Amino acid sequence: MIELVDVSFSYDGSQQVVRGVDLHLTCGGITALVGPNGSGKTTVGKLAAGILKPGSGRVEIGGRSADGMSLAEIGSEVGYLFQQPQRQLFAPTAREELSFLLRVQRVDEDEIRRRADAMLKQFDLQHLQDSFPFVLSRGEKQRLALAAVLMNRPQFLILDEPTTALDVKRKAELSKLLMRLHDEGVGMLIISHDSRFVGDLAERVVQLRGGEITDDCRNQHRSV
Amino acid sequence: MTAETSTDQFDPRSKLVLVMCISSLAVLLQDAVMMTAVLACGWLAAIAFGVDVAGILLRLRKLLYLFAAMAVIQSIFTPGGEVLVSLGGVSLVTSVGLDRGVTIILRVLIIVISAGIVTTASSRDVVQGLYQWGIPYEIAFMVALAIRFLPLLRQEAEDVLTAVQLRGLKLDEVPLGQRLQIYSYLLMPMVSSVLGKSQKLAIAVEMRAFRAHDQRTSYRSLQMHGGDYAVMGAAVAATAVFLLAAWRIGRI
Questions:
Q1: Nearest residue on chain A to B195, alpha-carbon basis
Q2: Any idea what DSSP says for residue A114?
């Protein structure tokens, strides 16, 4: 689904933040990307989503070079949850947040309502459907942002620190939801510091240190 | 200690005077040819002060549709002059309307490019410069903070635009009306984020016992040099020439 081949990247043109990364992510698998602060996890995530262009090496999404794809084309296949969820919330109400982009894409109004209702229920946001997204708590914003990403039904998800600001109950619910998506064949790259969360979910754990992959192994302790 | 670059040698006050002159001309002038000349002067000044003009224009490219929409709307709703485009006997675009639309685009470009000059001065020096000019510290500090937030606002705008496209939206293919609605939506996360940051900043500085008292003293004192007076003199003289020329042709 997503392939990074010998990818290197630098923000300022001199210091390499990511060095020679090779990563093959398949549809249906859950991969965790872990590592200390500043190890380049978010940068690798953004490279995999085509948001950043590699300085050298290549990124392929669905067999096509990410270079030749627009963000909208990538977005229809890969969903990306930002570390700061408020950056991907735009609309005046939570329901409109889920609906407006599908409306622009001329999806049938009944279908939009059906999908939005399902998402609001799934993420326990029904009571907040008319709320202004910016007044929601961090956890609620996180859930709304993820729900909005899922409205597009992406084949692959890249989640950057999805458990930040979620309490134990919400984490468990998120874990259950991600497992269901996994069962439906959605692939995932979870970037996280939450070792217990990724330990329970991921089939594969990739360790990043100083912009390089130092370990890439199957997770023996997966419990879900 | 880092070495000063050639543009750091200029007092922030000379940069502020230059930007005030250029942006005043952008607001006062009505003639597209003269505004193009002001844009050229502002562009050259920005390059001389080390502003990444090409980068600014590249980023503005994303707002091209908004500018074009503004120009077309102005053009349609401003009658007069020669009819350039008409539909069923109704004039849609007139020469006067088109001129008005073009001047709006030029005005925005001049202000954005000249504002880049101020961002080359450190916010600390801008406060100090304004304070030495007798402007109350509180206001000087507010101006410096506003300048400090410009690059942040730009970064926010880029992130938000990336996020909305990553949700599968092909902006190029969206009809103009809906595109304007989307742009209005995009303002929300940007404004919300900047307000949040400024609130956090206010709390952080107050927690460190900062107060914008007028009786503050400063170890650092700015000194104007010959180059600063030359920049300010040239800016004021060029502004006067432009205004005089505009007044003589009745386009002010």
A1: A134
A2: H
- Written in H, E and C, the secondary structure of B90-140 is EEEEEHHHHHHHHHHHHHHHHHHHHHHHHCCCCHHHHHHHHHHCCCCHHHH
pTM: 0.69
> Would you kindly state where each structural domain of chain B is located, as residue ranges?
12-248
Taking the Cβ of residue A49 and every Cβ of chain B, the question of whether any pair is shorter than 8 Å is answered with: yes
Inter-chain CB proximity B167 and A100 less than 8 Å: no
Query: Could you tell me if A75 lies within 8 Å of chain B, comparing CB atoms?
Result: yes
Residue in chain A nearest B163 by alpha carbon: A88
Beta bridge partners of B85: B93
The phi, psi pair for B182, rounded to 5°, reads: -65, -45
Facing residue for A80 by CB, picked from B166, B174, B189: B166
What CA–CA distance (Å, rounded) separates A94 from A85?
A: 13
Average pLDDT over residues A41-67: 92
Residue A127 to residue A91: CA distance in whole angstroms: 17
As given in the structure block, the two tokens for residue B61 are 């490219």
Checking if the pLDDT of A201 tops 70, the result is: yes
ipTM: 0.82
Binned at pLDDT 50, 70 and 90, residue B50 comes out as confident
Provide the pLDDT for residue B130: 86
CA dihedral B73, B78, B80, B85 (to 10 degrees): 20
Q: What is the DSSP string of A31-66?
A: EEEE-STTSSHHHHHHHHTTSS--SEEEEEETTEEG
Name A24's bridge partners.
A3
Instruction: Report residue A78: phi and psi, to 5°.
Output: -120, 125
B89: alpha, beta or left, given left = phi > 0 and alpha = psi -120 to 50? left
Residue-wise pLDDT for B12-38, tens only, equals 899 999 999 999 999 898 888 999 999
Helix and strand element counts for chain A (H, E): 7, 10
Instruction: With beta carbons under 8 A apart, name residues in chain A contacting B153.
Output: none
Q: Is residue B183's pLDDT more than 90?
A: no
